[in-house]
Amino acid sequence: MNIEHFIEAAMAEDVGRGDLYARVSEAVEASAKIYAKSDGVLAGVLYVDALAKMESIYVKWFVKEGERFAKGDVIAHFSGDSHTLLRCERTILNMMLHASSIATLTRRYVDLIEPYGTKLLDTRKTRPMLRNFEKYATRIGGAVNHRMGLDDCLMLKDTHLRTIKDLDVFMADARKRIPYTAKIEIEAETFEMAKKAMDVRADIVMCDNMTPVQLREVVVYKNTNYPYIKLEASGNISLETIESYAATGVDAISTGSLIHQANWIDLSMKMD
Questions:
Q1: In 178-246, which ranges are continuous DSSP H helix?
Q2: Smallest Cα–Cα separation from 60: which of 34, 94, 87, 82?
Q3: Which of 7, 132, 233, 235 could disulfide-pair with 209, CB 3.0 to 4.6 Å?
Q4: CA distances from 207 to 170, 197, 255, 270, 272 (A)
Q5: Exposed, middle or buried: residue 49 (CB in 10 Å: 0-12, 13-18, 19+)?
Q6: Cβ 10 vs Cβ 88: under 8 Å
Q7: What is the CA radius of gyration of the chain?
Q8: Closest by CA position to 121, among listed 199, 76, 185, 214
Q9: Hey, which pathway is this one from (predicted)?
């Protein structure tokens, strides 16, 4: 779903058959500000700007997308007719709150692993129909998008591997049939499986639910034998543990918690 269609659907969900306030009042020129009631990282500007263009609302931003803000800061100023501002208020805030909350948590993860040169990846654990929006928010927070769907990387997880009789034969055939630019990633829960995944020339090996000690062993083997293969750590990695995983020398760390564990920050719109 592109941005315009997303916004139209969000507005239709909220407005329904029409804003009853507009039925009982006259529109006047009005302006409003959005205030931060907690600290955070701003995301959602791309979507709010698109909505403002569609609804003929003028917006002036005092914080740029991806920048940090503090409690009490004025984030943006809006002007237009009162009916339009009030009709769009909740959709504007919901998009900013959702995106900024994800970006804020993502930045906390990024700050912890950035010194190690490790990339932070998101996952496909997104809310239905919100994948583009939520992955956009992690990107604003400093993460790198993992695959957007089943069509941009061939990932063989434990569930897939159980259906494959001969991994060597499968890989040779897969290389002939998937797009030339597509990568193959194989999940491994043990050192032996990680070694096998590298031996069959996976582009990326996902080390799932390994401890940092176990992961170090895989990193050493990879660096010695297959330095061009990328290693990704995943599985129950939290703010408390992510730094210990980054210190192993793994190339990337993926976690769904960027999205499903993000607690909403607090923003408020006030009419002038």
A1: 191-199, 212-225, 242-246
A2: 34
A3: 235
A4: 20, 10, 12, 48, 53
A5: middle
A6: no
A7: 23
A8: 185
A9: Cofactor biosynthesis; NAD(+) biosynthesis; nicotinate D-ribonucleotide from quinolinate: step 1/1
